[in-house]
């Protein structure tokens, strides 16, 4: 059964020689266990530039999959030391990107936990940027009302 959680997502992006760009989102979402996989879901906001998009993060041993549906549609697979291709569909068009995971840490349980993903984005086999996601999940105590 899904339970309500508080989610803090900090994203750091650096493209080519540009300065680092950082965004932090704190929102509520849900955490659910299905078999050996934990699934985290939350709605993106205007702050992230992905308003109208549902993000689902599936955590398995050795692998994390991020699915986004809505304004942006993609499925990105993160496995440390591995490269996966992902189709990235936006209102402005679609492109295929390579996702090369440099570091993956996922310590998530039914009471919450942390996920950290450090990966490079490749377009046409050329690294165009580096992203780091730090996600902190905390279980919401029963009866606690969290504002939107």
Concise overview:
The chain is mostly beta strands and 148 residues long.
Description:
- The chain has 148 residues and is mainly β.
- The protein has a single domain, classed as Calycin beta-barrel core domain (Lipocalin, Beta Barrel).
- 0% of the residues lie in helices and 72% in strands.
- The protein is built from no helices and ten strands.
- It has strands at 3-15, 21-34, 37-43, 53-60, 63-70, 73-78, 83-90, 93-109, 112-123, 126-139.
- Strands 1-2-3-4-5-6-7-8-9-10 form a ten-stranded antiparallel beta barrel.
- The radius of gyration is 15 Å and the shape is globular.
- It starts with a strand and ends in a 9-residue tail after the last strand.
- The mean pLDDT is 89.
- Note the overall shape: globular
* H/E element order: EEEEEEEEEE
Q: Count of DSSP helices?
A: 0
Structural class: mainly beta
What is the helix fraction of residues, given as a range?
Answer: under 10%
Relative strand content: over 45%
